Amino acid sequence: MITFNLNGRKVEVDCEPMDRLSDVLRGKLGLTGTKVGCNSGDCGSCSIILNDDLCCSCLLPMGQIDGGYITTIEGLEDGKTLSNMQQAFLDYGASQCGICMPGMLISAEWLHKYKENPKPKDIEDVLGGVLCRCTGYKKILESVMAVTGGQYTRIKKNSDSNTVVGSRINRLDGVQKVTGREVFGADDFPEGTLVIHVLRSPFESAKFTINNISQFLADNPGVIDILTADDVPGKNHFGVIPGFSDQPIFAQNKTKFAGEAVAAVVGEPKAIRKFEPDSFPIQWVREPAVLEPAEATVSGAPVLHAERPNNILTEGYVASGNAEGALLNSVHVIENRYKTPFIEHAYIEPEAGYALRDGDRIIIQGCTQAPFMNKDSIAEILGIGSEDVRIIPTGCGGGFGSKLDLSYQPYIALAAWKLNRPVGIVYSRHESMGTTTKRHPSEISIKVGCDENFKITAIDFHGVFNTGAYASWGPTVANRVPVHASGPYQVANYLAKSRAVHTNNVPAGAFRGFGVPQTAIALETSLSELAQKAGADELSFRMINALRNGTPTVTGQIFSSGVGITKCLEAVRPAWERAKKYSSQHNNALGKSIHKKKGVGIATCWYGCGNTSIANPSTIRIGIRQNGQIILHQGATDIGQGSNTVITQIVADAIQTDINSIELIGPDTDLTPDAGKTSASRQTFISGGAASLAGKALREKILRHANVGENARIKSGPTGLYIEDNGQYHQVDLCRLPFDEFGYVLSVQESYDPVTTPLDENGQGDPYALYGYGVQIAELTVDTELGTVVIDRITAAHDVGKAVNPTLVEGQIEGGIAQGIGLALMEEYQPGVTDNLHDYLIPTIGDMPDIDIFIVEDKACDVPNGIKGLGEHVLIPTAPAILNGIRNASGAKINTLPATPARVLSAMKEVEF
Ligand code: FES
Ligand code: FES
Q: The pTM is what?
């Protein structure tokens, strides 16, 4: 028995001295506020205070804490009141997905207690041990500074207001996040849940045989079953795009990447903890593998999928005018080649969840971005009807695209279905990074020309994307890239080709931008070079060429409103002029003797919101109970971006009620209609559109039933539904109304599906109902002796049509910038080498620059409320702006990412500067 003081009370636990404190807190004491992101001291999400020290509880053996005093996130609240720090995190919008919040808050409280008047540097030093992949840390820093500096006063923001859209209300699910009460995939397994461990290929390409399973079971008491391909009653494969479902649940005889699943061991938690994967009776014969697209497409290379000759998964193509001819006649031409690596999503929550058989139904609770897609896929795998699958998404501790695909779900579903017992899984950090999808590595060649008036004459773009062993979102990347490779510019002569190529690597899939960030790196750095070659200012060059209302895109689509790129460029122009002046003055004043050179770079983005040229429907339901309560069924998974909050804001305005009148039922495939997946920057735009239609329809029903005028305001509360008409409040009598199929006395269900058209053989058509636009400026310092780069400031302007919640918009921009900094300077996933958060570097709080944000609202008239998506746009311009800044400061032209110090130094040697 080990005894200690936990959050002010004495506890005694029966455990081994070498048990980890994090496991005991979560498993034995039920305090799941402390999170486990890595189990190896790298992420800080398990931070707790032991006596007077800030510690990672995953590294603390229980034997070391006997008699100690421990504070966890659950100990921060004073009774039912949030601590000042928690309330400040809530008010400043410091949390997004929330998985890092317990570690952040514990660290911040420790700092507050032990350091008087900490400076930003002190805060960075302490919070630098906690990784956040969502927020960009800026609002966290602001919250901590406000509290520790004594300037913080509690603000009540979710007050009654006639207009909710546009208000900086607090995140509706924010309290759960800052208290650690949000339930994530690993937090809530039923009593008696079995554990499943997936066995995976150690080789990129190999044949295998499994034998003598019965002997293995006999030798491993507590292991209940072994699952293989033979145990899949339905289809032994999954995928995300119809016609491209090609990844086996369990490989049969042969594997195509290191990490591919071959079998799974199910058993009691203790037995699975003790299980040694090397003891499993499997024989491997290694086969030749192809790891790069260039190797994979040569004649005679091993073919991964017989139906895809030369390992080509798919190709994309957009052409207009005559790019080749126009380039020949151009006054200035720039030609470049680029290479970008695999990028890991590095969400702090590894994949986790459990499955439970309920008669002839299967229920899966866990983290996901796409519950309805999961539902259909699991039904196919189990060979049951889709109506017999229920997906209950938990909080999603970061997704960024990778949690669109199935990962852990088939294994727990198969085991629970077969054994009729709850079965759970929590991926290790290594398993999460080694087996789930990545950003596609790219090899891009580009030629861009302009005339003497700085007008772009032509773009010729070829991109090859390494899509790994299975399709995942490879076809989407290949289709989206050629549409976006022009950037938000008028380009009369255009040729863009893309190709997704299979290799024996972990599958590449969706990651914030579907190939567009790689594309923008090539285009925007080439455009800056071209502008300089032509003698133009880089911002003015972009302004001359920018799309406007009424000008055609490269697919021939014309928007009559909402093309906001010129407004974004105008918004950042003063910052651009100031930054250019400052950096040249700094460098000139100090001359060649100084080795810390200032630089400034600019880049733009555009991004089509929603799926490319296919249906995008989203459906929202709202009902009124007989007691007058308004219930919103909102099925768009909130992975931190804020859909729970912004969809409710939109509904409140559409009904013309206040936000507190609405009770939210979040995603659950049994309770909420299909709002589609959370990807492609579509939820605020499309589910928001459905929410607006549904809110207006419900309002109409209420007004008709109450027989009141158009200007009435509606209020719902514990005592009923009220109408305020001409200053008079009336209670609406709902008692005599019958219940409908959903159990409501009044209800509506509305869908929104923005209009797109298919692309023709030249890629011409209307692939998206709208685009969002943005510009970022990077100011930075390059150490020309060491090759290191420090980002000093990012100025960002993003056109969102209408900012539903400006605080959340800012949070998205700051978080996207952080991921863009990682893409530019430090991130490179190497399969089998950087499968952990120690070797795979992502930006910490200390890597973040000052950020100035301009929210541009150029409404698109033909979509509901003019609202545009934002989630992916914000990452796209950061890396090219940084690369342009590095070249501006040092002359170094970085064509292979990331821009590590070695690459910067090597690139500097190639130029005279
Ligand atoms: S879980 Fe302990 S540091 Fe990551
Ligand atoms: S809010 Fe920090 S990891 Fe998501």
A: 0.97
